[in-house]
Specification:
By secondary structure, this protein is α/β, with parallel strands linked by helices. It has one domain: Rossmann fold, CATH 3.40.50. The chain contains 9 helices and 7 strands, in the order αααβαβαββαβαααββ. The protein has a 7-stranded mixed sheet, with helices on both faces. Helix 6 links the parallel strand 4 and strand 5. Helix 6 runs parallel beside helix 9. It is globular and about 50 Å long.
């Protein structure tokens, strides 16, 4: 049993906002809405796309994206899927309940695959590699996959010691936020999960390329909830 996956499923039953269940602070609700614009741009969403959202959560991205593509599939914990199905039931959006690594994915291959703010919830680099390998296997020729919102402790450290970073932290604390939250993981990131740093991120990009895919490490816009400290990996499957 994946304990991190089960703990995330329990969040669905708590009295939390959709923003918090998605791993953001309540104050990030407005910035959260900007994520969808960045995802659409990086995935180059097209009306003919078949989209898979791995770890779709409460649907903050897969629901709006389902209006932009031909078909969309979201997969997550059964408790979370139950919550999102009560919110929305569009004709072009289907859901799968279960742990991605142990669930048969139907409907593929997919021209676009999204896996946003998920890899950091896995237990180890080995589990990340298995997760990524399965995701790559679902991508259609010419398709694009986005591993988004990957925290990088080295990137965060560089930001924290920059002039703007120091001002950002001071402003965060002055706004009334708990100072300990500056370095705290989000609700969706277990304390015993993998820690991404420059080495882990670059090894992941190298691993993807060795499997015959193009892979690019790209920054997030600074106006996203964790834009200063996180980055994305865009993968393209050669035709």
């Amino acid at each position: 049993m994946n304990l991190a996956f089960e703990r995330y499923g329990q969040l669905a039953g708590q009295d939390l906002s959709l923003t918090e269940i998605s791993g953001r602070y309540p104050s990030s609700e407005v910035d959260q809405r900007r994520i969808i614009l960045d995802v659409v741009s990086k995935l180059k969403i097209d009306p003919e796309d078949q989209l898979l959202d791995i770890g779709c959560g409460v649907g903050l991205m897969v629901i709006p994206l389902s209006f932009m593509v031909a078909e969309a599939v979201g997969i997550d914990h059964p408790s979370v899927i139950s919550k999102v199905q009560r919110r929305f039931g569009g004709n072009r959006l289907a859901f799968l309940s279960g742990d991605f690594l142990n669930t048969e994915i139907t409907g593929g291959p997919f021209s676009k695959v999204l896996c946003y703010s998920v890899l950091q919830c896995l237990a180890s680099e080995e589990e990340v590699s298995a997760f990524v390998k399965k995701a790559l296997g679902l991508l259609a020729p010419g398709g694009i996959l986005l591993f988004g919102d990957i925290p990088n402790t080295d990137k965060k450290e560089r930001f924290a010691h920059s002039p703007f970073g120091r001002k950002f932290v001071d402003h965060w604390i002055a706004s009334g936020a708990n100072a300990t939250n500056v370095n705290k993981k989000s609700l969706t990131e277990p304390d015993d999960s993998i820690v991404f740093d420059d080495g882990v991120v670059t090894r992941l990009v190298h691993t993807i390329r060795k499997q015959g895919f193009d892979a690019y490490l790209v920054p997030q816009p600074n106006d996203l909830p964790f834009g200063h400290t996180r980055e994305d990996i865009i993968v393209r499957k050669c035709i």
